[in-house]
Write a structure and sequence with these properties.
This is Nitrate reductase molybdenum cofactor assembly chaperone. It comes from Streptomyces violaceorubidus. This protein is an all-alpha fold and 164 residues long. It is built from ten helices and no strands.
Length: 164
């Protein structure tokens, strides 16, 4: 969808580990993506160590909050390997080679891909996963839920009859 490139890039940065680079980019993120203010305002007033500990608590200790999209559809099964191949093939189809330390279905990587290409395929195909993650983050009471709210708001409406 045109016009959401900046939001998707900003969301990708917000969903990665909050290192020194994140802290340096925070003022720009706050200005560039007002939809993420619920999270960026929180990050701006939270100490670096506390923000990092919260990230680890939310995303590293619980698959319940997995940022790996194929985990939501395939779990830890053999099918996940084929799903990961599909992500890599989509990147290649757009002339991009996935070389990150993370797996290709890592939501921040997918969001960066979408911001560069405008191809929403993987986000729309994983609409249910994003909705589940959003719901769980909201229930957990983390400001990261705001980031998922903004990302989900960019998805086109689900086709009639599709499960939401």
């Amino acid at each position: 969808m045109p016009g959401f490139e900046v939001l998707h890039q900003a969301a990708a940065l917000c969903l990665t580990y909050p290192d020194d680079d994140f802290r340096a980019r925070l003022p720009l993120l706050r200005e560039a993506a007002p939809q993420l203010r619920g999270f960026t305002d929180h990050a701006a007033v939270t100490g670096q160590g506390e923000l990092q500990a919260h990230y680890v608590e939310v995303f590293d200790f619980r698959n319940r909050h997995s940022l790996y999209l194929s985990w939501w559809t395939d779990g830890d099964t053999r099918n996940r390997g084929m799903s990961l191949v599909r992500f890599k093939e989509l990147y290649r189809a757009h002339g991009l080679e996935f070389t990150g330390e993370e797996l290709p279905d890592f939501l921040p990587a997918v969001l960066e891909f979408v911001s560069r290409t405008g191809d929403m395929t993987m986000l729309t195909e994983h609409r249910d996963a994003l909705g589940q993650l959003r719901s769980r983050l909201t229930a957990f009471g983390t400001p990261y839920a705001c980031v998922l709210d903004a990302v989900c708001a960019t998805l086109p409406p689900a086709p009639a009859g599709e499960r939401r």
